[in-house]
Amino acid sequence: MNIERINGTKLAEAFTGAVNYLILYIDEINALNVFPVPDGDTGTNMSLTAKSSLKQVDSLEDKSSIYKVAEAMSTGSLMGARGNSGVILSQYLRGFSEGLKGRDDAGVRDLALAFKSASETTYKAVMKPTEGTILTVGREAADFAVRKNKNYNNIIDFLTDFVKAAKTSLDKTPEKLQVLKDAGVVDAGGKGLVVLFEGLLKALRGERISATEDEVMKAKAQKEIILTEENQDIKFGYCTEFIIKTDYEDVDAFKEKLSPMGDCLLVVGGSGSGIIKVHIHTNNPGVVLENALELGGLQDIKIDNMRFQHQEILFNNEELKQAERLESANSSETVEKKESSFIVVSLGKGINEVFKSLGADYIVEGGQTMNPSTEDFINAIDSLNSENIYIVPNNGNIILAANQARDLSEKNVFIIPTKSIPEGVTAMLSFNSEISPQENVERMTDAIKEVKSAQVTYAVRDTNMNGQSITSGDIIGLGGKEILSSGKDVSEVTKELISKLVNEDTSMITLFWGYDLTEEDARRLYEDLDAEYEDLDIDLIEGNQPLYYYLISLE
Questions:
Q1: Helix H segments across 172-214?
Q2: Per-residue exposure over 46-56, b if at least 16 CB sit within 10 Å of its own CB, e if not
Q3: Can you list the positions of beta strands (E) in 357-495?
Q4: Which helix (H) or strand (E) holds 238?
């Protein structure tokens, strides 16, 4: 096959195939985790980011210009970016778009320069670039493209060798980053980028790539079913979603009609859009649909028995939350402007309550395995009427998305670079309303340096780290970037972990216990620690967090 130039329509088709190909690799990419812990999410983050990008492309009426398509790819990924890998992917697509600016179509040299622009943009987006990551794969592939593009006229031949160069770079990432070599894996973000390149090439060759099931939403839902308690004591068992094609405008009247039929009701649309989108939990989906048919034709009907599964695809969680916010904003009076507000990323009922008690105005649900998007933060920022807004991300994989939201917002937004729940609690305790925002950022950032964070979870694969032989299913204790303890018993592993972190400067230990434990389990551990560390203050808090038996703070 010989292709010398591609236009926007061809790029849109190829990008669709690339995104679908990435979706098929979600689990494989997620598994490329340095630590054998149950929070690998690079594949999910990159796929959700790419899907947001593709959604923006699909919304274009005219796809003839390659620059307009690339620009849409960039815009969609920017708002949908999740996790460090998703943010870097969004910056890659931004640079790719800038490299094609003003062009209706592109040949080999144009694409080579666009890949170079993409790589350069990713490096500018990261304060301290680390080699052996997605950055390296993007750069070394781009270097090949710039050096060798004169040897090609056919885009297919060029991309075939470009993908080989990217794969070679990926295979060498463990040589550049010791933690990858120790774990026996290649870089997950780099793998995701290579998969996108492979999918793009396959689609240009004419291969049809489709994710027959929406694997990215399936993976997301599988995580959320672990992270929520919605399946417990369900009153209305069928999650029912559909779209009505109609000119009917009185959305409020229709909502009032459906209201007695269930709960978690959202009815949005109308206002000349030609559609009404409905979400309801009900025991009688047939009756709901009969009422909807009176208004017009139905499409995208989806009915899930929530007692057996919990997947929200037609309405994803972000859409539901946004609709709820809009509904709330339309029904309430204008909130008086505050001097300062806090947006906090948290997951777990108990931990959420702790942050609310410390002054959090807006909780963004997320953390490990559920990294919020740039758009989630933008929505949170827009919902607050405040002179100064502080974002407390509580996860190193979320800071870049928070930074991106800050840069897109016109409000005064400040990022406190917290990487754990204990750091977030310490930061908020350090806030002083009597000093300037800049002084508070310095004060809170300095405070988090004084706290040690640790976690207790379980291993998802066999591994050898720090001289420890760990088997899948073992309990492991992590302090900083090291596995410090392991074994079969949660309490024993936790006590060993704490013993290795306590020193003469430690005055307080706080344990947040997760929903996989009982209060009796946590209380027994507390009593053992209280007896062993008589001179320390020990606090036990029900965090309800998923995946981690204990989150631990030592100060």
A1: 173-176, 178-183, 188-204
A2: bbbbbbbbbeb
A3: 362-365, 386-392, 412-415, 452-458, 463-465, 468-470, 475-479, 482-487
A4: strand 238-245
pLDDT in tens, 466-479: 677 888 889 999 99
Cα distance between residue 518 and residue 539, in whole Å: 16
Residue 89: both structure tokens together: 């992917």
Q: Is 316 left (phi over 0), alpha (psi -120 to 50) or beta?
A: beta
Instruction: Record the pTM.
Output: 0.73
Residue 133 is which amino acid? T
Contact predicate 500/484, CB 8 Å:
yes
Pick the closest to residue 395 from 30, 39, 35 (CA basis). 39
- Can you say whether residue 461 is alpha, beta or left, with left for phi > 0 and alpha for psi between -120 and 50 degrees? beta
Average pLDDT over residues 401-427: 94
Give the Cα separation of 406 and 394 in Å (integer): 16
Q: Which residues contact 161 (CB under 8 A, 6 or more apart)?
A: 144, 148, 152
Residue pointed to by tokens 């009593």: 527
| Per-residue pLDDT reduced to its tens digit, 145-203 | 999 999 999 999 999 999 999 999 999 999 999 888 888 899 999 999 999 999 999 99
Q: How far apart are the first and last CA of the chain?
A: 64
